[in-house]
Design a protein that fits this description.
Among the domains are: 162 residues, Serine Threonine Protein Phosphatase 5, Tetratricopeptide repeat (Alpha Horseshoe); 72 residues, no CATH class; 146 residues, Lysozyme (Orthogonal Bundle). The two termini are 45 Å apart. It is mainly alpha-helical and 714 residues long.
């Protein structure tokens, strides 16, 4: 029998016939290790000697690995001589086409891509159609390429496809279409290498096409967002050199973008000069410039200065878009500084000043929090009840209900009044942090809280796998993990109702595809899981993912496995292949520098960055780090905060506000992301414990402990 622990993290069983690929080969392929190619070749040679039936599939794997390393001649030889079963045939044709195109044989590539397209599943068909058009174009057949590229670019436009379609349109005489595509590439994708080529082509035509100022500014914004600050400055200089910056508004817009780019390159004095120039522009631009300055002060922890700048902005430009955010931050900064009466005043008039703000529910919440900090519990409750009544669909409703009940309690209400209110919080938001807090408050009152969920998550015992997953399994068996993942993703995107989603997510759980199962559930099963509270629908939301590794490492490092799962759920949603813009990798989002520091503590060689995608290693390092955070901070809320924001930030927060009870302490964490992170991790931790832990309920301490000197500081 074949045993699966994930289409992307395959572990091969030996009973009933092993795969021709060795487990070492598959693991190396999954981690992109350099030895994968040589291991695959060894497997292939061994298979040929034994005349095993898997030679074609092994040749396909070995050929794709040779191709990925630039060994084009070897790849063509391996792939051209391979024979595979039906489901793999379009993929073999696809990789044959890739090898031919890399070798410069466009005609052979086009033939291969055409074969791939004949029987390709939807996920492969998109790629095959685009490459077919490219190959036909390279083979000197623009009339055949044009309709193929039209279809491909219309279905899924990209810089590459628009560039290719521009070439095809030029070749068949569609000059205006070519120009439209080239301009789209240059303006929409300014950081892409094809953008500069598109610009050069536009400017080299008999009637050169020049960008407008608006298009130059769009390019500059795109470059700035891509982190290309120097290129942003060059783009603005180009617009000025062409004398496009003629009006007061245009000069201000250019100055604003220049200021942001100069800040990004560390040229602060020049940036401030540019910002001053931008503030001389019309109100819409001047307000944006003022907001940039205020946000920079906020980022530098110059909160008093930021508060003054935000207040000045709101007063000077009350009708401009940034005034909304500025007005909100004035109150928020008062609250952070302990100026609670001022915060109440600011937030009390926020609705009148900004009646269309997306922050209106938050303004009510922070006004109520300021009342609570002033021990004005009656007014706090009135504001919170108004929040629930006015913004019934707001994500803030569970916390508003909890704090309305807490305000009653702090005002002296008795258990008979409070119990049904706290119970309602649990009943209406069973998976929330506030349901956890409400449960603790009920226990303090001597009441047994109702269980958030009557039954624990239940995984189906059926062995049946939907036929829709058979191709993905076949691709994984062949070591084509990327193709398998794309196939699963394509199948998920075609799920249309909860019944189908439930069957699919349960099958994915059985295959160890926890991340994909979670994604299906989050898209289709929310109502069944948290409304109807069906245990089968809950299962993909709270799986015991990679249980062997989690339980072993948690025991080794003396940390709760439930905390590991809670962190994993928040960090990666159980996807081992995920990475972040900050280069955090894998299930627990470990960054390479932290991994090296952990390896040093464990007296073992530092892992290569790609190894952090390996679940067992990632879980080991994440569990070790969590255990040291718990040793230092002694509370899962603080450990979670440190995991997200770093130990130094948590030490500062505890020093400033550690005397507060936990519920207030968490509400006043100054980083919005960390505040939400802590709430979710705590909720998930205690749900995992209630689902899979001992019968006796675990308690959440509502006291913030003092950190120790033990543990980690990185």
């Amino acid at each position: 029998m074949r045993r699966w622990t994930g289409l992307l993290t395959l572990v091969v069983g030996t009973a009933g016939g092993a795969w021709a690929q060795s487990p070492e080969t598959l693991e190396a392929v999954r981690l992109h290790r350099t030895e994968a190619r040589s291991l695959a070749r060894k497997d292939l040679e061994a298979c040929k000697e034994k005349e095993c039936p898997d030679a074609g599939r092994l040749a396909l794997l070995a050929g794709t690995l040779a191709l990925s390393e630039g060994e084009v001649a070897e790849a063509r030889t391996l792939l051209s001589g391979a024979t595979v079963s039906g489901p793999l045939q379009p993929f073999l044709a696809w990789y044959q086409g890739q090898a031919h195109l890399a070798a410069g044989d466009a005609a052979a590539a086009a033939e291969a891509f055409a074969r791939a397209l004949e029987k390709a599943p939807p996920a492969l068909a998109k790629r095959a159609r685009a490459r077919l058009g490219e190959a036909l174009l390279a083979a000197g057949k623009p009339k055949e390429a044009a309709p193929v590229l039209e279809a491909a670019a219309n279905a899924e436009p990209s810089a590459e496809l628009l560039s290719l379609r521009a070439q095809a349109r030029r070749a068949v005489g569609k000059v205006s279409g070519e120009r439209a595509d080239l301009k789209a590439v240059a303006v929409r994708y300014p950081a892409h290498p094809a953008a500069d080529e598109a610009l050069a082509r536009l400017e080299s035509q008999k009637k050169p096409v020049r960008l407008t100022l608006a298009e130059h500014l769009e390019r500059a914004r795109g470059l700035l967002e891509a982190g290309a600050a120097k290129r942003t400055l060059a783009e603005l200089e180009k617009a000025e050199a062409r004398k496009l910056v003629r009006t007061k508004k245009a000069r201000a817009e250019v100055a604003l973008l220049r200021a942001q780019a100069l800040y990004a390159t560390g040229r602060k004095a020049e940036a401030e000069q540019a910002l001053a120039e931008a503030r001389k522009g019309p109100p819409s631009v001047a307000a944006e410039a003022a907001y940039v300055a205020a946000r920079r002060s906020l980022k530098a922890n110059e909160n008093d200065k930021a508060r003054e700048q935000m207040a000045s902005l709101e007063k000077a430009f009350p009708r401009e878009k940034p005034a909304d955010e500025a007005g909100f931050y004035v109150g928020w900064l008062d609250l952070q500084a302990g100026r609670f009466e001022e915060a109440v005043k600011v937030f009390s008039t926020f609705h009148e000043r900004h009646p269309r703000s997306r922050r209106r529910d938050e303004a009510l919440w922070y006004r109520a929090l300021a009342h609570i900090r002033l021990e004005q519990y009656g007014p706090a409750r009135e504001v919170l009840e108004r929040l629930v009544a006015t913004f019934s669909r707001s994500s803030l409703v569970p916390q508003a209900r909890y704090w309305a009940a807490r305000s009653q309690e702090l005002a002296g209400a008795k258990a008979d009044v409070l119990a049904p209110v706290y119970a309602r919080v649990i009943g209406t938001a069973p998976n929330s942090y506030y349901a956890l807090l409400a449960s603790e408050r009920l226990r303090e009152l001597g009441q047994e809280p109702p269980p958030p969920f009557p039954e624990a998550p239940r995984q189906s015992e059926s062995e049946e796998v939907p036929s829709e997953l058979s191709l993905a399994m076949t691709l994984s068996e062949a070591g084509l993990f990327r193709d398998a993942a794309e196939e699963v993703q394509a199948r998920i995107s075609r799920i249309r109702d909860a019944k189908e989603a439930l069957t699919f997510s349960q099958a994915l759980l059985r295959l160890g595809e926890y991340g994909h199962a979670y994604k299906v559930a989050a898209r289709h099963l929310w109502g069944q899981a948290f409304g109807a509270r069906a245990p089968e629908a809950l299962a993909p939301f709270y799986p015991r993912a990679f249980s062997s590794a989690v339980e072993a490492e948690a025991a080794r490092h003396a940390v709760s496995p439930f905390l590991v799962w809670a962190i994993m759920r928040r960090e990666s949603a159980f996807r081992p292949e995920v990475s972040s813009p900050a280069d955090a990798r894998g299930l627990m989002q470990v960054i390479p520098p932290t991994a090296r520091a952990i390896a040093k503590q464990l007296s073992e060689p530092a892992p290569a960055p790609e190894e952090l995608f390996k679940p067992s290693l990632n879980i080991r390092y994440g569990s070790w780090y969590l255990s040291r955070l718990m040793k230092r901070f002694s509370h899962p809320a603080l450990a979670a905060a440190a995991y997200n924001a770093g130990p130094d930030a948590v030490l500062r927060w505890v020093e400033e506000k550690g005397a507060l009870p936990l519920d207030l302490f968490v509400e006043e964490i100054s980083y919005r992301e960390t505040r939400g992170y802590v709430k979710q991790v705590l909720a998930d931790l205690f749900l995992y414990q209630s689902f899979y832990g001992a019968k006796a309920p675990q308690r959440l301490s509502l006291v913030v402990p003092k950190p120790t000197e033990e543990g980690v500081s990185f």
